[in-house]
Amino acid sequence: MTPEPDFPYPIFVGGSARSGTHAMGALLASSERYATVGVEARFHCANNGLADLLQDKTDLDGFCRRTLGPWWSRGIFGERGLCVIATRVQLEAAVEAFRAGFAGDHWRAARQLMKDLIDPTAERKGKPAWVDLSGYNVRAAPVMHRLFPRSKVIHMVRDGRAVTASILLKRDQTDDREEAFAHWHRRILASHEGLQRMPAGAALTINLDQLTALDRDREFERLTGFLEIGDPRSMRSHFEREISAERAHVGAWRERLAPADVRWVNRRYRQALKELRRDGIDYLPPP
After folding, report:
1. Same domain, 114 and 161
2. 15 domain-assigned
3. 269 and 142: one domain?
4. Spacing of C-alpha 255 from chain mean position
5. How distant, in Å, are the alpha carbons of 156, 184, 261, 284 from that of 270?
């Protein structure tokens, strides 16, 4: 068995859609340590997933059925899901071993299931550790941290107006502004609940606008310090070349929406910020 790395491992990156999770994944993958999983694994953090099973919020049979079903293959053409990182034979063997070991030590069985399914993605790329980019990772972070005590979570946040605009412009999502905004709002609340239960030093919130435009060097140094990366030269090279305000469309959300939608989302975001700040969520970009 490959020994576990002595640095933070694995890394769970999460946040709302269009908040920079995949840009963060590419940045981490530019280091010598980490490989991105290749697809949002989801089975561990989605509703009724592994984290919920370990908290007695769903049942074993239902979890196994979903892992072999919708989490195995999703998308219009069935091109996404665990099928990207494992063969059907490998998945069925991993789930069978998990089921067999669950009654004896369900935490150990769960950890092994994740390693069976995800570790090979890093091994194929010659990296010692992996990064998963599933959106609900932050919600499930306390459970994942118990499974992997050296793991860390990166919570990506972005102006809710920019998230709403980006979702509305993405062809395969929604054209309903209320639904798009509600997605961002739900993810913020779910992520905050998870962060509240994380030990000190195990989670880092990164503001996409700060990282790409407003305070680039400070945010980059916060990230590499958090991950205990002593020599970030390869990451710095990727950062300077690929991470920019232009690529992230920083401040461009107004130009990407119709005037009526601009007024609506601006008003709704200001209202939501007041409510969220009363709940102790003080890390969101101001209007």
Report:
1. no
2. yes
3. yes
4. 27
5. 20, 14, 14, 11
pLDDT in tens, 68-87: 999 999 888 788 999 999 99
Q: Could you tell me the pTM of the whole model? A: 0.95
CA distance 122 to 128: 6
Q: Which of 127, 159, 178 is the last residue of a domain?
A: 127
Last residue of a domain, one of 106, 127, 148: 127
Domain assignment present for residue 3? The answer is no
Quote the DSSP letter at residue 80: B
Contacts of 8 by beta carbon, 8 Å cutoff, 6+ apart: 150, 151, 152, 226, 227, 228
- Quick one: 45 and 119 in the same domain? yes
Indicate the number of domains in the chain.
Answer: 2
List % helix, strand, coil for the chain (3-state, nearest 5): 55, 10, 35
Structural domain boundaries enclosing 274: 8-33+128-287
Between CA 254 and CA 252 the distance in angstroms is 6
For residue 155, the surrounding DSSP H or E stretch is strand 152-157
What is the distance between the alpha carbons of residues 208 and 155, in angstroms, rounded to a whole number? 10
Contact between 17 and 137 under an 8 Å Cβ cutoff? The reply is no
Size of the chain, expressed as the number of residues it contains: 287
Residues 29 and 50 in one domain: no
Q: Please tell me whether residues 228 and 286 are part of one structural domain.
A: yes
State pLDDT tens for residues 106-134: 999 999 999 999 999 999 999 999 999 99
From the number of C-beta atoms within 10 Å of its C-beta (0-12, 13-18, 19+), residue 156 rates as buried
Which element (helix H / strand E) includes 126? none
What residues does 153 pair with on adjacent strands? 12, 203
Convert the pLDDT of each residue in 134-184 to its tens digit.
999 999 999 999 999 999 999 999 999 999 999 998 867 788 999 999 999
